[in-house]
Specification:
Elements: E1 2-6, H1 9-26, E2 31-34, H2 41-54, E3 62-65, E4 67-69, H3 80-87, E5 99-100, H4 109-122, E6 128-131, E7 153-156, H5 159-169, E8 178-181, H6 184-188, E9 192-197, H7 203-211, E10 229-234, H8 244-261
The structure holds fructose -6-phosphate.
Length: 263
Amino acid sequence: MRVIITKDYNQMSRTAALIIAKQVRSKPSTVLGLATGSTPLGTYKELVRMHKKERLDFSNVRTFNLDEYFRLDPSHPQSYHTFMFENLFNGINLKPENISIPDGMAENVEGFCTEYERRIKLAGGLDLQLLGIGRDGHVGFNEPGSSLGSRTRLKTLAEETVRDNARFFGDKKEVPRLAITMGVGTIMEARKLVLLASGQGKANAVMKSIEGPVTAQVTASALQLHPSVTVVTDQKAASMLRHRRYYLYVEKMAEEYEAEAGI
Ligand code: F6R
């Protein structure tokens, strides 16, 4: 696991965008897994800038979003459909037919979830999955107690998540209580994982996920079992990490090595 501790939110966003851009440039038909929420906003802004100013090309990229609220119309201002179009898709040259977001309005939810998994497989699997983290350590909407082998399914949001997401809806009562989410098992099958975390409020979840035991009570801790994970945090989110100085040292050594090797 690589842990990159950046100075602040902007640097975290720029670092994550560079990782994604490198992936897309090295494989133009990359299959990207995407997240919503406030954490990846800066990353998406930077990707839009790179598309406009540096010709970062998404024309052959396919995307699969992690989750969507259940029974929230895609046109709702707080749906993850709306979020993705407003914050990323409208600013880059992805083909609409290459975009997949869970359908929160699906009549047959189980059938839809099975089909979503099948579509990911058919696309060749996720090359890189971008993740945020909840204060309870969730990835996707895999709340504490979610099986670490879980697949895409309907999930009940934890009380804390509903409270956290109320900031987008104005009123807690408006926040959907259910969501369709990729499972931990689905996420773990991506070839690369990039987890973003920003702010003091995430420090405890980050510490438990990276340095705590692997447990279904903190679903992000499953990432410890994945062979290719990059965690990008700002200083506040990293503030409770016991081995913080070591992670900084490793990155400094890598930089020196790359400079020496002319990479
Ligand atoms: C969103 C998602 C969630 C969020 C998490 C953090 O697609 O899967 O796991 O990443 O709830 O949300 P923010 O970034 O708003 O703190």
